[in-house]
Records
---
Amino acid sequence: MVSRESLTELFFRTFPDEFWKDALTDLLTCYKEADRFIRSRDLALDKQFADWLHPYPRRGLIQSRLLKVVGRYSRRGINAKVESAKRGGGPYVIFEAGRFRLTESMINRVEELPRIACFRKQESAYNRSLFDEDDAADEGKTYYGVLAHLPHHKKDEPAAVRVKFPNDDYKGAFHVIDLKAKYKSVFEEKLVPEEKIQDPKIKLRKPKNEPKNPDGETT
């Protein structure tokens, strides 16, 4: 059986700190951008409909940015591909490195897994190897985790970001890695809204008694 400590150690050896800092920075940006889009005056959505719609543009942004971040680290052995969920669930990104396969999803409560889906239940079957007594002797086994984020009640930032390794039956998590706790500096940096970034306007005031040059013209 794999210990939680050894799983965490292997995880951070496989995914470098630079990757997670970039991925989490983009995650924060996606939350901000999706919130600005939903609350824009052009859409003029009622709050109830805005709250309902929030996860959809945010998910599209996060999944798209994940592909780009992973692409920048392909030489480090991190790769991504897009799969399609059965029964009209839409596309989703799987990113892989070493012995890990990860997907991304929102959660409704910090202690819960994302809602059950066919592909998540199927992927979680990989985690049977977490309980094998001979796991240390087999280097070819794969572990599945979910990059899970919980929206803040204002919906403009994540209240929690964790990688959860489900049990093989997708009923509870074998292990959880708290990325927000590990990379505090990323979440402590406040993003300045674009509309507030402006060039300062400097007004020059002319003196009351302006000196004249030898030709009699005002300088």
Note: The longest strand covers residues 143-151.
---
Amino acid sequence: MFDGFNVPESNTTYCPNQFFDVCLPNYSRGVVRLVGYMLRRTLGWCDSEGEPQEAQIQISYSEICEKVGISRPRIKDAVRDAIHGRFIRCIKKGTPGNEDGQGNSATYELRWDKSGTYNKQPETFRGFFEKSGNRTYIPNEFFDVCVRKEPLSVVKIVGAVARLSIGFETKQGHRRNKIAVSFSHFRRYSKIRNRGNLAASIQRAIEKNYILQLREGNFTQNRTEQRANVFSLKWRVVTKRNQKLSSAEYLAERNRKEDEWLQKNGGSNKKVPEEQLQKGTRIEIKLEKLSRSKTREKEELNFGQSEDTTYIRNSKTLARGLKEKRKVNRPFKCSTWAEQFEMLERLDGVLSDRISNVLNWYIEHIGKPFVPEAFSARGFRNKFLQIEDAMMKRYGGINPVEISKDAEWIVDRIFAFEHVPFSKEQLSNAVQNSLDAYRAFRTKLLNIENLQVEDRIHRLAAYLVASIPQSCEYIETWIRKVIQMLNRPNNGKGCGFNFQSYITFSMDMPDFQEMLKQITISYGETLEMLSEVILCTQNEPKTR
């Protein structure tokens, strides 16, 4: 996870302020990424005389895809708009490859305005201000991480904080390190009209550690007591151990987070000696001899709202299977096992249906060759990916699919920026299946306009279609998140894990469901109406 910008003592780009005043608020994400990349390449590296090492940059379409973060179908529009907006100029046009595969890439350079006038309006902008002043030392991570990876709305928020804080210089030559910004000021500067989207973008920028809220605003009818929120860029805290966590450190961090989560949810992760277990806090694995009423009396169900929960049922299924197949007769605490199944779903992001399928298969095949052994809920959670991989191999592994250009582009980017412990074929199949599933859901949302349902459902479905991220952007972000999780210890790395079976997109994923809820709330609609929209994507009501 991004942990803040480097303190601007080095590794900075001396960026013209017009990038924040003209380009960022008024142009598309493709233009912003392309111009930001040109500024980073041109002004991020200078020689001993202070001159740019690369005033003219030759770049191919494939480089724009990999290094700039623009999908191939959008490159032409982004280059055209950047040239028409007078941010860059084309020095040499590219030529397509011939039969021998030889072609020339186009060459571009930044466009500078020698008139000495600082223009802030797109209509009068003629190039970046060439004379001294009106520039800011911007951390390179802003261009390398934020601009290239985040949605345009988030980049606008981070850019606004940077421009309004360190982008202004006092008469004494000092720079602000924080700024009081009202919600309306953010809205005017970023030109994000929807207040819900603006609030969500500010919250995402805070959660991603790009900005820091130093003081919360106060909005009352008494004008003398009103005050705006105070923001600053999030600066990285430099320590002697500014490095990635080792395996032992990660496990300690994971245990700490689990303890915090358990305390928050009223559970306990401490092992209790056998003699300290009271009659009402454990159950021996003799479920078939206990009636339902006696089971209720013997089990301590302080986890969940009732006995009949998925986590409790999974605990009983695993306990019964261990007794029948492996003759494990030791007592177990049902609520503690249920906590592990809930953490597998909520903390590890595994869908409940997937957990049930793997669990049922494991109980059926436990003890057979090449099936990992787990004799507790914690062991099942830690070996879940290995067990699932054994299941997938038994059913024949990966089915080959036709890989699209978009999937190839995502795969190339992931291999360029992440350590992928799987083959390119596995990753390509996973990406393609995820793209197909995501686009299928989006198509179902589009088809709602042809159904005989309430107008509110039509309007919310149209808003969801316009608000959810593009398929390539969302799938790439999701898969990177999964890879980062799988690279952690005890997550099945190096065990021949079937990657495709794990990350194929589903609309039931908790992260995706939460995103739909946030979009619905920002639109001002109820979650009950969102449920109606989801129901329309699953069923086939009559068309108009």
Note: The first strand starts at residue 12 and ends at 16.
---
Amino acid sequence: ESFQVQLKSCVGVDTSYRLFLSNKDEENQMIRNDFAKISLGISSRNRKIFSKPMIEILYRLCACDFLDVIIIPDNIVRKFEVEKWPIVNIFLCFYAKGYSLDKAIKYVELRKPYVINEIYNQKVLFNRR
């Protein structure tokens, strides 16, 4: 069982991560190629994304043949405009101190992915005023 992280080039951005499980069974690989995968984008601070519990969740998600898990790490969020972020079908965003929820909201408004956890509510919940 090997869990690999492969750099993915997407719209001029080559520092997002595509996660996958390597499988040496060629027959299973041919079956996987017969249908379109759903891309799941996960964005938060690196310390949350690469925490031990999240790595276990990611490992299990990557075992699903129909999911293409794409991590949108800190450096993408900070350095690039949302137009250059990888395009995903489903978006999962976790608030963390220092994370730009405003950019995540712009991304959702621009690309209109299915949002698993409501980003607008996260902004309200973490506003201490």
Note: The CA atoms of residues 71 and 116 lie 15 Å apart.
---
Amino acid sequence: MSVTFVWRYQRQLTNIHDLRKIMASTRTLCIKRIH
């Protein structure tokens, strides 16, 4: 049970990390388009 909880927690963290990456990439794309 605890192992599953840790796995879910780690997966959530990775998802948040991926979201940050996507946000950063989209932000750079928008800046490039504006300039």
Note: The two ends are 51 Å apart (CA to CA).
